[in-house]
Design a protein that fits this description.
Elements lengths: L18 E6 L31 E12 L5 E17 L5 H8 L4 E4 L8 E4 L8 E10 L2 E15 L12 E7 L9 E5 L4 E11 L4 E8 L2 E6 L4 H9 L4 E8 L5 E8 L4 E4 L3 E2 L2 E4 L1
Antiparallel strand pairs: 1-6, 2-3, 3-8, 4-5, 6-7, 7-8, 7-9, 10-14, 10-17, 11-12, 11-15, 11-16, 13-14
Protein name: Phage tail protein
């Protein structure tokens, strides 16, 4: 079984600044995960908390299998593609969540007064629920993922339950529709691997009279001769798969100044086990 690169696994959660946000249909949405979400005057996009079940995205392709005279499958014809999104809002007293459930035009909010608290009036009718654009922002540690839905509409509403032993929630399913480019959603993922430049000094003491030492960048090592030239040292380090670039200055036998560029923070160490008559240190 192939070894799993744990950095490629994902557990996406909203943290404090993420979640799901609603915008008027036609809003220009970001095309990366770091651009701030749109700000529209007199429009609050926040839809509040979602249950610990998170968001379930489903894509179904309607295909028809074609067979030849022998009954062997020889072709698959796609007749359609359907994308849906399912989630459960846990703030039933949030007017914007109520607008998702009843329809925006069917919810009216009257501000609180000295005599009465905020009044949220909703009516249920057969009006078709409106289309909106949505942004979903999530994080996995320092990695982040954004999904943009240019056109989505609530297509199913779950049961609304009032009882003493559980809370009231709104389970909603959205149908996703293609935009003018034919796309139903856009995903943007940024990994925490920004290029970082670091400088180190490698010093040989003793001095050693033979052997080699390892210059390690994370779990990869470059084998360096005790009397290596700066050019040979630089070539060995630059060849490491996790080093984007390397520059080494100094004279044969050191000390050496090593400047490396890596994707994200990569710990650097040295191992002088194979040196004869000396030691190596990095700072």
């Amino acid at each position: 079984m192939a070894h799993t690169n744990v950095r490629n696994t994902g557990v996406w959660v909203p943290k404090a600044t993420g979640g799901i946000y609603r915008y008027p249909l036609g809003t220009i949405l970001p095309t990366d995960p770091w651009t701030p979400r749109p700000v529209i005057p007199n429009w609050d996009p926040r839809l509040g908390g979602v249950s610990d079940e998170g968001v379930t995205s489903t894509t179904k392709r309607d295909t028809e299998k074609k067979k030849d005279w022998n009954g062997d499958k020889v072709r698959s014809v796609q007749n359609g593609k359907d994308d849906t999104l399912k989630l459960t809002f846990i703030e039933p007293k949030n007017p914007r969540v109520m607008e998702e459930y009843f329809g925006k035009a069917n919810v009216t909010v009257t501000e609180a007064t000295a005599q009465h608290g905020t009044l949220i009036a909703a009516v249920s009718n057969s009006d078709i629920l409106p289309h909106f654009a949505y942004i979903i922002d999530t994080f996995d540690g320092a990695d982040r993922k954004r999904r943009c839905l240019p056109d989505a509409q609530v297509s199913e509403t779950g049961d609304e339950v009032w009882q003493s032993k559980d809370w009231t929630v709104h389970q909603l399913t959205y149908d996703l529709f293609p935009d003018l480019a034919g796309n139903t959603f856009y995903d943007y993922t940024e990994r925490d691997d920004k290029l970082i430049e670091s400088t180190y000094t490698v010093t040989l003491s003793g001095p050693p009279t033979a052997g080699t030492f390892d210059f390690k960048v994370a779990d990869l090592a470059a084998e360096i001769a005790y009397n290596s030239t700066q050019a040979a040292f630089q070539s060995a380090v630059a060849a490491l798969a996790n080093v984007k670039s390397a520059t080494v200055t100094g004279t044969a036998g050191g000390p050496y100044t090593v400047k490396i560029t890596t994707a994200g923070v990569a710990p650097v160490s040295v191992d002088g086990t194979d040196l004869t008559g000396g030691t190596v240190a990095v700072a």
